[in-house]
Amino acid sequence: MLGRQPERARLKLNLREISQEQELLAPGHSLCPGCVESVAVRQILNVAGPNTVVVTATGCLSVSTSPYPMTAWRNPWIHSLFANAGATVSGIEAAYRSLVKKGVMSDTTPTNFIVFAGDGGTYDIGLQSLSGALERGHRFLYVCLNNEAYMNTGIQRSSATLPGTWTTTSPFSETVAGKTQARKDMTAIVADHGIPYAAQASPHLWKDLMRKTKKALESEGPSFLNVLAACPRGWRTEPEIGIRLGKVAVDTCVWPIYEVDDGQWILNSKPREKKPVTEWLELQGRFSHLMRPGREEEVARIQKQIDLLWESLLIRCK
Amino acid sequence: MKPLPSDSTIEMKDAIGTVKSTAKSLSGGFAVAEAMRQTNPDVVACYPITPSTLVVEKFSELVANGEVDTEFVAVESEHSALSACLAATAAGVRSQTASSSQGLAYMWEVLYAVSGLRLPVVLHCANRALSAPINIHGDHTDTMGARDSGWIQLYAENPQEAYDNALAAVRIAEHPDVLLPVLGSQDGYTVTHSVERVDVLPDKEVKKFVGQYTPKSALLDIENPVTFGPLVSPKHAFELKLQGIEAMSRAEDVIDSIGEEFAFLTGRPLDSVELYRMEDAELVMVVIGSVAGTARVAIDRLRSDGTKAGLLKIRSYRPFPSTRICEVLGGKKAVAVLDRALSPGAPYSPLYTDICAALYSHGVILPLASFVHGIGGRDTYPKQIIEAFQRIEEKLKVGESMNQTEYLGIT
User: Which residues contact B170 (CB under 8 A, 6 or more apart)?
Assistant: First the structure.
């Protein structure tokens, strides 16, 4: 399955050109002010264009963009359930292949198939469906819009949630400092399926995200983008700092920017100076309990997990 | 799996149908796979589960041999099997799957999504008991549990009917007045693994009969983008769900008209109900599935001993042909309903409850007895059915109430 489709049209990476493209996610949707999900979706769809079928797992994005009888989607779009985004895109891609085989559709300008799912729909309830679709080798791009918890249901912990995080199902008390478990390394899990392309990205590095989208869509098989998307409601932050939060996540190595291209691990953005995790924690209300005196041990534990993942990533990217 | 020996195929001229069929020796599972070969769906997504595995295995063989040009998606679960079919049909093509028992249970939330999105997916089900205890044998607990999911449900008595239903299902599901998914059911092992004569239509006749799937809107119609599966508020949800009720109600006529069209080809009627020795029957048994054959034998024996017994077999359980059932049962001395599913805590098992509601709402009040048989794959014998009839006869004679469910064949 490994390989590339023929290179497509040149990627527009200057803002004037990009701004002249039609917005495929129409304004008027009801995502929260400051939600970074819509920023990521717009950057990705700008690259993918109208010849793209979009699948969305249940989550903030699906419910905020499709209030019947209205829709924000100018692409063909489907949502059916929470746990089945991988299988859904498999069915559409199989239908496409059958129509190409019958000569009903042409594959000279291949249709893109893109999934948008949250971390709950990717790391947790949708993991089996995604893993199956990756193993079968369907051609699709799966985008995890990762806001590190179940935000649509009111901020509950997921396996993408960092240790120490406050959520409504990982509250803090005198004895418990938020989530007690470690974070799952989903991008590595996906990459280890041996798919052509997997990457981590953040919309504040918009050129990187758009370049990765193009690379992913040109893959002859499954591709995966794990995109950090700040959530003002769930992270307890001001709406205007979402993009800045992405930068801090990268500078503190909480969210490394890398890609796994045909099995080769490449670090795309190495912070000049690795900042301490406290710079990430102190910006967000969901970590405020860790900033109190007496919580230094918890903070050190979080720093240790970040360091371990960062170091293992550096080894894989050598 | 050995391929079917070619010498088991004989040509025969159908006496009533307008089309010459070919008689083949097929199990119920293979009969469905044969119907699928002839239908040649665009996408089939399956996950193996006993006893529906015959369908999946045979169909995989057909794909590998190039006898169909279907995109076969060997998914990692039943949840994904039906999700992939949902999506493929929304994308604009014809899709089918097969399952049983736990597999159907695992599809549960997807069942509602498929019918709610009005996608004409066809699911071939081999009835099997639900765990626990784990049990691979047949009863109707799996599909009866799905009766409110908005799917049309057709039940087959034998491999022939499994084949017939598998073809008719495509037409019923895709009919513009219906646009609902169809579940075609056959009893696990009793039908799925029993080899019988199946009259198979010529490929070209099936191709003509099932025609092309032409969706009203499709995801892959890129020039005309559509939104499938939006968020609906209480302002609109009720009316949208009622459209499903109306479609189900229109499906009654569609099932009959497609049945007539099918009968013209094959000579085999494909009605929502089937009657046996009903004209002058005084005592009637209502059944569903493969036990109908056993009941016919029992009824013949009762008749030879002077008891005027008759049979009503339900082929279409959803939509439930209430009016037709009431026309047929009205004026009978007593009716026994034979369920193959349990509904703990309910007044009665599902079929009895439906028959009771249909009769009462049509003003047909008569003694109605409840029997349950075949749970977990327990065999049912003519003797047990004869004794059931005899007990009703006796109770009628002495004026005893029939309102207690009796379980046939328990030790």
Answer: B39, B94, B120, B122, B182, B210
Nearest CB among A51, A75, A128 relative to B77 is that of A128
Residues of A in contact with B85 (CB under 8 A): 91
Closest-CA residue of B relative to A56 is B229
Domain A15-316 has CATH 1.10.10.10: no
B15-70 residue pLDDT tens: 468 899 999 999 999 999 999 999 999 999 999 999 999 999 999 999 999 999 99
> How many C-beta atoms lie closer than 10 Å to residue B214's C-beta?
9
SS3 A305: helix
Q: Rounded to a whole number, what is the distance in Å from the CA of B112 to chain A's nearest CA?
A: 10
Place of tokens 């309830």: A125
Say whether both B223 and B283 belong to one domain: no
Q: Are residues B230 and B372 in the same domain?
A: no
Of A63, A78, A136, the CB nearest to B231: A63
Picking from A78, A97, A129, the nearest residue to B228 by CB comes out as: A78
How many structural domains comprise chain B?
2
| Residue carrying structure tokens 């079917």 | B4
Question: pLDDT digit string (tens) for B325-381?
Answer: 999 999 999 999 999 999 999 999 999 999 999 999 999 999 999 999 999 999 999
Closest-CA residue of chain A to B93: A95
**Which residue of B lies nearest to A90 if distances are taken between CA atoms?**
B84
Q: Is the ipTM of this complex over 0.90?
A: yes
Min Cα distance B137 → chain A (Å) is: 28
Map out the domains of chain A as residue ranges: 15-316
The Cα B76–Cα B83 span in angstroms is 11
